């Protein structure tokens, strides 16, 4: 514990702290996918990828309905790419060389070195694939390389898949904000998770090891589970 001159407990000193560089839509290249600035050129590919799902179940916890036409897809992309509060990426499948998902940085606070990963919209081509994990890894690696201190993830408390995906790649559950918002005429309790800079070196090592090509068969099946590489989760 740390105490000030008045005997009061205070936080860890950060004498050398300075605001970090802004997060930008810099192209991030991985082995299985790349992240590029989301734009109108991705409209048709994303529309086709999202249309592989024959219902709207992938959009239950998202803020909008699934686009049902190229015009709606274009508008959806435009809303995200023009939002100055977001850094919006299209996820490009390295084999297909086409857009198959979307992911964003949001609530970016360069002064305090914090940001969120959100607006995660995977098509059926990404779900339960190495590309989903690598896309999140690329964003975490980019932010922490710039010296960010905390990357958060939040999701509807009923979206078990989202929370599980975050915990799988190293995010720690922090707590639940009850009745934090409404979404599609429903109540939403929000679960918060995060990775902080002190945890990142060990998580980075684990993700790098799991993502190595020799950890996958020719059919893309993992040989060793990510959880086997991950460090023990520390209590908060």
Overview of the structural elements:
With 236 residues, the protein is an alpha+beta fold. It has 6 helices and 10 strands; from the N terminus they run E-E-E-E-H-H-E-E-E-H-E-H-E-E-H-H. It has helices at 43-50, 70-81, 130-145, 160-168, 200-211, 226-229, and strands spanning 2-3, 9-10, 28-29, 33-37, 87-93, 98-109, 114-122, 150-156, 172-183, 186-196. The strands form 2 sheets. Strands 3-4-5-6-7-8-10-9 form an 8-stranded mixed beta sheet. A two-stranded antiparallel ribbon has the order 1-2. The chain starts with a strand and ends in a 7-residue tail after the last helix. The model has no long low-confidence stretch (mean pLDDT 96).
Keywords:
236 residues, alpha+beta, eight-stranded mixed sheet, two-stranded antiparallel sheet, 26% helix, globular
Number of strands: 10
Instruction: Name the helicity range.
Output: 25-40%
Q: Major beta sheet, specifics? A: 8 strands, mixed
Percent of residues in beta strands?
25-35%
Q: Per the principal axes of the C-alpha atoms, what is the gross shape? A: globular
Radius of gyration: 19 Å
The CA-CA distance between the termini, in Å, is 15 Å
Number of helices: 6
Structural class: alpha+beta
Elements, N to C (H/E): EEEEHHEEEHEHEEHH
**Rounded mean pLDDT score:** 96
Instruction: Extract low-pLDDT stretches.
Output: none
**Strand order in the largest sheet:** 3-4-5-6-7-8-10-9
In short:
This protein has six helices and ten strands. With about 240 residues, it is of the alpha+beta class.
């Amino acid at each position: 514990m740390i105490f000030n001159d008045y005997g009061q407990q205070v936080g860890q000193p950060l004498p050398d702290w300075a605001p970090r560089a802004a997060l930008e839509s810099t192209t991030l290249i991985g082995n299985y996918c790349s992240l590029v600035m989301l734009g109108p050129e991705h409209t048709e590919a994303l529309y086709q990828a999202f249309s592989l799902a024959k219902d709207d179940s992938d959009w239950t916890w998202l803020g909008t309905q699934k686009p049902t036409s190229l015009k709606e897809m274009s508008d959806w992309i435009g809303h995200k790419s023009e939002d100055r509060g977001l850094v919006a990426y299209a996820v490009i499948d390295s084999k297909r060389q086409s857009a198959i998902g979307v992911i964003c940085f949001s609530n970016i606070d360069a002064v305090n070195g914090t940001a969120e990963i959100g607006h995660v919209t995977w098509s059926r081509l990404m779900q339960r694939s190495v590309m989903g994990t690598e896309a999140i890894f690329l964003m975490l690696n980019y932010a922490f390389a710039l010296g960010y201190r905390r990357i958060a993830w939040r999701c509807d408390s009923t979206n078990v898949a989202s929370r599980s995906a975050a915990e799988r790649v190293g995010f720690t559950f922090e707590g639940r904000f009850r009745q934090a918002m409404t979404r599609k005429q429903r109540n939403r309790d929000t679960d918060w998770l995060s990775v902080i800079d002190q945890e990142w070196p060990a998580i980075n090592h684990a993700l790098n090891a799991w993502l190595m090509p020799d950890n996958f068969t020719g059919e893309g099946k993992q040989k060793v589970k990510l959880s086997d590489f991950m460090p023990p989760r520390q209590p908060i």
